[in-house]
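Supplementary Methods. Inverse-folding protocol.

Structures were first reduced to a discrete structure-token string of length 381. This string, shown here, constituted the complete conditioning input.
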């Protein structure tokens, strides 16, 4: 009888070691398991990621409700976003808000909303996800900037909302902001990317078009110009498969694996519309506000640019004029935020580095900065 009781206790204990359920208590992990992620997005001072079952987790600065956890507290480890009966396929962490595409193709956003950043025809912030106005199961990807969002539909059309003071939503100079998604005319896109205050797309011919703020040539025309129309970027003589936009610059990745960038690319100067080839043998790119990271085809990560908080990840805070390879292997995803960076490895684990004063690295503390890739903590309920 005593032995049978012991066996029963062991079975019950082991059954609670790692659970993969739904709702606010899902994916509770103890020492016996690790949550695996398939997508990660670094924002300004927060980070969000999707687990393999489509659950969303966020951490870092919680003001304005940007974590989607129902409160405004900063979190130094992943906390599950509060939404019932929804699984996501892609998300994007902006400056003070976050948006995501639900598995069926609808769009949800949460956080700051003064100028319609949530797209729900309101200016009231939300601490939990809200459905974007008119959202139907037709969207496949989304990007977020400092205060605007753009989403790509399956038919190639691009819809944007939020602040438009630099025409970053493509709606014209007479529209200061939009609280609901509006279609950007004459675009047939395959990929989209939101910078701080500009937006770029890759069309179905492998060309890059941009619109929005251009004080450093980041949309592909002279910095002295403020274009009123969508601009075709010149000088990339290869088909492009991905574009990534920072604060004052933009980078594109070609089908051949080459990285080209334009805008403000160094510490000094006024920027330029001229395209510069940076790197080869690259699988994916991500532009932070003033730094960039590239995922090499070998699974290594190389970063360059501003490094005042260690966002390059090479153990220093020295500006990197050229790409520096990090001590990180088997990477499959990369995301550069404002002043921090995160990556996913092949085994589904997440690593972050750079600024951490708000807990945006998810490593369980609020240390000012971390100079090398560091594994994030598991969610704690």
């Amino acid at each position: 009888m005593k032995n049978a009781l012991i066996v029963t206790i062991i079975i019950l204990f082991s059954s609670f070691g790692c659970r993969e359920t739904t709702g606010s208590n899902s994916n509770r992990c103890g020492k016996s398991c690790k949550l695996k992620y398939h997508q990660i997005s670094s924002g300004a001072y927060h980070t969000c990621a999707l687990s393999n079952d489509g659950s969303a987790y966020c951490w870092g600065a919680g003001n304005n409700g940007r974590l989607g956890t129902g409160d405004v507290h900063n979190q130094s480890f992943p906390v599950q976003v509060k939404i019932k009966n929804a699984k996501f396929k892609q998300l994007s962490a902006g400056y003070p808000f976050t948006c995501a595409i639900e598995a069926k193709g609808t769009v949800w956003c949460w956080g700051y909303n003064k100028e319609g950043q949530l797209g729900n025809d309101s200016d009231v912030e939300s601490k939990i996800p809200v459905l974007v106005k008119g959202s139907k199961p037709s969207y496949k990807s989304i990007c977020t900037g400092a205060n605007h969002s753009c989403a790509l539909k399956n038919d190639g059309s691009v819809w944007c909302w939020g602040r438009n003071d630099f025409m970053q939503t493509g709606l014209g100079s007479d529209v200061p902001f939009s609280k609901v998604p509006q279609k950007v005319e004459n675009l047939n896109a395959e990929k989209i990317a939101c910078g701080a205050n500009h937006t770029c797309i890759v069309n179905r011919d492998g060309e890059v078009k941009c619109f929005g703020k251009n004080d450093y040539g980041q949309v592909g025309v002279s910095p002295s110009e403020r274009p009123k129309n969508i601009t075709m970027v010149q000088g990339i003589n290869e088909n492009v498969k991905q574009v990534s936009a920072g604060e004052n610059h933009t980078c594109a990745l070609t089908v051949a694996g080459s990285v080209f960038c334009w805008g403000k690319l160094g510490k000094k100067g006024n920027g330029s519309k001229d395209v510069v080839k940076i790197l080869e043998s690259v699988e994916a790119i991500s532009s932070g506000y003033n730094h960039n990271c590239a995922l090499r085809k070998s699974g290594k990560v190389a970063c360059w640019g501003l490094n005042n908080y260690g966002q390059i990840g090479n153990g220093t805070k020295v500006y990197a004029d050229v790409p520096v390879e990090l001590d990180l292997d088997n990477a499959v995803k990369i995301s550069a935020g404002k002043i921090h960076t995160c990556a996913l490895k092949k085994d589904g684990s997440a690593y972050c580095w750079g600024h951490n004063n708000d807990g945006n690295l998810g490593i369980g503390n609020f240390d000012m900065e971390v100079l090398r890739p560091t594994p994030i903590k598991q969610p704690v309920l």
